[in-house]
Amino acid sequence: MGWLRITWKKSSIGYNRQQRATISSLGLRRLNQTVEHPDNPGARGMVRKVRHLVEVEYLPDEIR
């Protein structure tokens, strides 16, 4: 299992409430902020929902 490094790159203004809530649930507060989450189906599902707003990088356990 690895980790996902998620960076918020595009504003959520103009997108629906669920997508804004997903950005917040990921722990992102400001544009260009980066957070790390364990690579699991829940985190991947949230990322997939807002994939047009974020950049995702996979980190193997050895790197982190």
If you had to describe this structure to a student in words, what would you say it looks like?
- 28% of the residues lie in helices and 27% in strands.
- It has 64 residues and is α+β, with helices and mostly antiparallel strands.
- It is globular and about 40 Å long.
- 16% of the residues are buried.
Outline of the structure:
This protein is an alpha+beta fold. It has two helices and three strands.
Oligomer class: single chain
Alpha-beta content class: alpha+beta
Helix-strand string: EHEHE
Low-confidence stretches: none
Question: Termini, distance in Å?
Answer: 11 Å
Arithmetic mean of pLDDT? 96
Radius of gyration: 11 Å
How many E-type strands? 3
Instruction: Provide a count of the helices.
Output: 2
How are the strands of the biggest sheet laid out side by side? 2-1-3
Q: State the share of residues found in helices, binned by percent.
A: 25-40%
Give the helix/strand layout.
Elements: E1 3-8, H1 17-25, E2 34-38, H2 41-49, E3 54-59
Antiparallel strand pairs: 1-2, 1-3
Defining key terms:
alpha+beta; 64 residues; three-stranded antiparallel β-sheet; globular
